[in-house]
Specification:
Residues 245-262 have a biased composition (Gly residues). The chain crosses the membrane at residues 362-382. By secondary structure, this protein is an alpha+beta fold. It folds into three domains: 38-180, Immunoglobulin-like, CATH 2.60.40; 184-336, Immunoglobulins (Immunoglobulin-like), CATH 2.60.40; 338-383, no CATH class. It contains seven helices and 22 strands.
Length: 398
């Protein structure tokens, strides 16, 4: 029996050869597609900061000016599967462009590379510099120069690349970070008033949407020009100088304040229109028209008898301080006024609810009706004392 024909088959002829080639190519393509389907880049949602992390309500994964200046960077955990030793993990940043397209990466402006890592591993910890992210979006040196003070969108592409000109590489996108380097515009009509161991600061709020509150700034090394804002009106016996002048003294331990936004206030470290040093921060208030400065962030207290130059800046959701307002001056005073003298004379009213309301003395507060009531009581005690003394003198003379 001739078995040659069953052992050696003839080479395919006619239409069979193209069909076999097509089948082989399809199988190879399917195998490649299967390998690509297995290839994944996954970013863990447990993203952290290298420095202090803000509370969840303050967008802790956004990049603020303080984050940028202090290198409070972002730390990601990335998981890779199906990778090869010839590949590189690169992180590219853009505000709105698709960085998986080589045409956007090739320009050097639409997308910017901020990280390249090789060799690869199953799980990798990737730290991304806040400064480099800011620079990639046009904020060199952490300086925001945009006309809008709102947050800027950031898209980060974690891509596994075989070659630099590869289109559509396996990748993962991160879009939960924004960049916000600029604080809101400042409030206006700032006016500081003296208090006992504190300064009371009034201002007109900025109505911008991104305003969360206001920082108060004090400089004890500043000066107030006597000619600016007019001379302060004399203070009363309680030692409170009148607002509107340059610290006019009262009958007791005097104090006073310049008018709102007075050009007579000068401070080498507080400059209107510039972002102040955080070391000069002496108070903080939410969305209100008045703030109280009692101590600096380092714990140093506002001191009686020391003149201060005061300014206010608005802050946003991530704590960015905006440019400083116009300045005002005031000197805290040690109050020994009506209430103290009244109590020393035996009076029992005052305090408690009477500490609420409009200004009296140098930063002590009382409602107007109750103030009249207490004043009447004090006058009655005084008159009664005079009558008793007069009666005693008459009896002795008899």
């Amino acid at each position: 029996m001739d078995t040659t024909r069953t052992l050696v088959r003839p080479w395919p002829r006619g239409r069979r050869l193209p069909r076999l080639c097509a089948a082989a190519l399809a199988a190879a393509a399917l195998a490649g597609a299967a390998r690509r389907a297995e290839a994944t880049v996954t970013i863990s949602t447990d993203v952290d900061r290298t420095g202090d992390r803000r509370p969840d309500a303050e967008n802790p994964l956004w990049i603020s000016r303080e984050d940028c200046l202090t290198d409070n960077d972002l730390r990601f955990t990335v998981t890779l599967t199906g990778f090869s030793t010839s590949q590189t993990l690169e992180v590219w940043v853009s505000e709105s462009q698709d960085c998986t397209l080589y045409s956007n990466r090739d320009t050097g402006t639409r997308c910017r590379r901020i990280k390249a890592v090789s060799p690869l591993d199953d799980t990798m910890e990737i730290e991304l510099s806040a400064k480099e992210i800011a620079a990639a979006l046009g904020a060199e040196g952490c300086e925001g120069t945009r006309s809008s003070t709102g947050a800027v969108s950031v898209t980060m592409y974690f891509m596994r690349l075989e070659s630099l000109d590869q289109d559509g590489p396996d990748h993962a996108k991160w879009e939960s970070t924004k960049m916000d380097l600029q604080g809101p515009k400042p409030p206006t009509e700032v006016e500081a008033h003296p208090g006992d161991g504190r300064l009371l600061i009034d201002f007109k709020q900025n109505e911008d949407e991104d305003v969360e509150g206001y920082y108060l700034y004090c400089d004890g090394g500043g000066q107030s020009s006597p000619g600016a804002g007019g001379a302060g009106a004399g203070g009363g016996d309680d030692g409170a100088g009148a607002a509107g002048g340059a610290g006019a003294a009262g009958g007791g331990s005097g104090g006073g304040a310049t008018g709102a936004g007075s050009s007579g206030c000068q401070a080498s470290r507080l400059v209107p229109g510039e972002v102040p040093e955080s070391a000069l921060r002496c108070g903080k208030v939410g969305k209100a028209n008045r703030g109280e400065a009692m101590k600096f962030d380092n714990g140093e207290a506002i001191a009686n008898g020391k003149p201060y130059v005061v300014g206010v800046s608005a802050y946003d959701l991530v704590g960015n301080a905006g440019p400083l307002s116009e300045l005002s001056c005031a000197t805290p005073v040690d109050v020994d006024g009506f209430f103290e003298k009244y109590r020393d004379a035996g009076g029992q009213a005052g305090g408690g609810f009477c500490s609420v309301g409009g200004p009296i003395g140098a930063g002590r507060w009382v409602s107007a009706p109750l103030g009249v009531l207490v004043a009447g009581a004090a006058l009655g005690l005084w008159r009664r004392g005079r009558r008793l003394r007069a009666r005693s003198i008459t009896q002795e003379s008899q």
